[in-house]
Each structure stands twice: as structure tokens, then as C-alpha cells.
Amino acid sequence: MNQDEKLSILKDILLTDEREYAKKVEEKLKIVEDIINKQNQLSKRVDPIIDQKLNDFVTEIPKTLGPVITEALKSEIKNSQDAVVEALFPIIGKMIKKYVQQEMQILSEQINAKMNTAFSFEALKRKFKSKRTGVSEADLIIQELAQPVIEQVMVIEKGSGIIISEHSKTQAIEEDMVAGMLTAIKSFAEDAFEKDKQQLQYIEYDNFHIHLQNFSSYYMAIIISGPYNVIFKSKLENKLLDFAQNYINKDDIKDSDSFSKKLELYFQ
User: If you ran DSSP here, which 8-state letter would residue 196 be given?
Assistant: First the structure.
């Protein structure tokens, strides 16, 4: 055995472990590379499916869980009313306080504007009225500012509750629902007091006053915002009687469009 052969044998003995280690490392790197490649290929196919499922979930969750959550909240509120009131009371209190402060500021500005017109005929008239009645000028100004407003007029057929005609500056209330409700309440109240032959003339609904003026085959429901007092009631009754006697006839009751035009012209 020559010298080269001896060196070759020695080299094989010394480097065998390193070659095996390097081979194993190479194999592991190959496995990792394959996994990465497979994941990249898999993600290209799986990611769109996952995205679609997520989008479907976001779209469907209000439909599927919404009613369940709403029902659960209703039940919880019903069963824990005291706790709900206790939780909401401070928030609602702050909202009401802010609203009242804002309204008081507006009222104060309006009163100041009225007071600043000290030398106008209106101011002199108010001053004279204050001395004559003993009511302060400030109270008289508040009365002037807080005037009742006719928001809606409905002409309703007696018995059936069908709306013959309607006119409104702002859609204050749901007319068909209120017409049926008023007719039912009127019938009940008038039947209850049948001996006295009384007719229902006034109802409060939400934040509105509803004045009822009765005629032979129909009645008029006047929805009013603001203060409703005896003086305004008297003026309103005169106005409604004047309208019924001088502005409409039997044919108008059968012609809704004609009635509505006359209502609009009279109450504009």
C-alpha cells in the first residue's frame, strides 16, 4: 500500500461523519423547501375560499344573529328594567338637561328681542295690558311666544273612521291610524255617556292636543302643538263653524280633492 492509498483511507475515515451530516442537512433543507412550495401552492387555492367564507359570514351574520340578539336584548331589558333605568337615567338626564338649557337660551333671546323693541306700538300695547291685567310684561311676552299651532286638519267620516280629507303643514301624526283610533275612542266615550248625549271634544295624543269638532255626518280632528287653552278653543270652534257653513257643501264631502283644496286655502 503506497502513501496515496494510505492518505485516501485516512481521509475517508476522517470525513465520513461530515459528509453524512451534510447529506442529512441537505435532505432536511429539501423537505423544508418542499413544504414551503406546497404551502404557497395551497394558499393560492385556499385563500380565495377563506376570503369568500369570511365575506359570506359578515353578510349573513346580521340576518342570522340579528333577530336572536334583538330578542335576547328585549328579554334582558324586560327582566332587568330597574337595572336598565338605572344605567340610562344619567344619560337621559344629561340629554334632557342639555335640551332644556338650549330651549331656555332660545326663549331668553326671544324675550330680549321683544324687550329691545321698547318703543314699538306692540311694546306700548303690551305695557298697557300689563298695567290693566296685573300680569308682568315678561309673562305676556312668554304667552305671545308660546302660541298654539295647527299642525294638521283631518275630516273623518263618522262611524267608519274613513278620512274624507286631510291637510297638514307638517305630517305630525299617522293619519289613518289616528283616524281609526279617534273614531273608536269617540264611539266608546259617547256610548258610555249616552244618557247625557255628550260628544267627545278633546284628546291628548303624544305631544299633541287633538280638538274634535262634530258635524252631522263627519267630524274634524285638529292636531295642535303648543298650549291649548279656553281662549284658543273658542276661536278655533268659531273658525271651524265658519268653514263648515260658508266654505263647503254636501258635494265637497263626496269629493276628497275638492275638500282638500278648500281645507288648504282656509288653513294655510
Answer: G
